[in-house]
Amino acid sequence: MNLPKKYILTIVTVLAVTMFFGCESNFKEVQKSNFSEFVPGSDADTVNIKYTDSGRITGVLVSSKMLDYSNLDFPFTEFPKGIDVTLYDKNLKRTFIRSNYAISYKPTGIIDLQGKVKITSETGQMLETEQLYFDQKNEWFYTERKFKLTDAKGVSYGQGIDFSKDFKVINSQRITGELEAEE
User: Fold this and answer.
1) Is pLDDT of 28 > 80?
2) Residue 65 pairs with which residues in a beta bridge?
3) Residues 72, 81: contact at Cβ < 8 Å?
4) Are 143 and 132 spatial neighbours (Cβ–Cβ below 8 Å)?
5) CA 89 to chain centre
6) Contact between residue 172 and residue 181 where contact means Cβ atoms under 8 Å apart
7) The dihedral formed by the CA atoms of 113, 115, 120 and 124, expressed in degrees to the nearest 10
8) Rounded (5°) CA angle 105-132-143
9) Which residues pair with 78 in a beta bridge?
10) What are the pLDDT digits (tens) for 99-143?
11) Distance between CA atoms of 153 and 87, rounded to whole angstroms?
12) Which residues, at least 6 apart from 133, have a Cβ–Cβ distance to it below 8 Å?
């Protein structure tokens, strides 16, 4: 009776060891198949990019660091050290944008500006906030964050704003401050 118990114990031990090492090897293969490197397709220092439309410059972007992740399923470009952008309208009026960090999502055309975002128009209007989005297709800025807007009428503060790149159309929410009224 002791002999079959030894055989059964030996067989169970061999099967358990075999299963353990078999699962170990499959687990490592599964880990490898699900692993993808998150590295940029290209990396550039000191970039100066000019955007054109029909031979006319529409924008100039300057940054000290650019990481391009166009090799991913959802491609984007990151500017970890910030950007300095000049946008030109059809009449060559300029809008200046500066932020400490930016990320541009290629499929959506949305640019996320973060960290001391400052936008200034040639006419002297200025908006300051901590995060601002720019819809490139519609040439429209928006945020739900707190902001400070300075123009010829005065200084106003609020939370939540959207506006055209030339500041001609401004929609703000929860605004406070002193404004000069037109009579």
Assistant:
1) no
2) 45
3) no
4) yes
5) 24
6) no
7) 150
8) 115
9) 67, 103
10) 999 999 999 999 999 999 999 988 888 999 999 999 988 989 999
11) 24
12) 110, 111, 112, 113, 141, 142, 143
Q: Write out the DSSP string of 126-183.
A: EEEEEEEEEETTTTEEEEEEEEEEEETTEEEEEEEEEEETTSSSEEESS-EEEEPPP-
How does DSSP classify residue 98? E
Tokens of 122: 């040639």
111 token code pair: 């640019």
Identify each DSSP E strand in 17-125 by its residue range.
42-53, 56-68, 76-79, 83-88, 94-99, 101-105, 110-121
Judged against a pLDDT cut of 60, whether residue 16 lies above it is answered with yes
The first and second tokens of residue 147, run together, are 């902001």
- DSSP-assigned states of every residue in 32-54: HHH------SEEEEEEEEEEEET
Tell me the CATH number for domain 42-179: 2.60.450.10
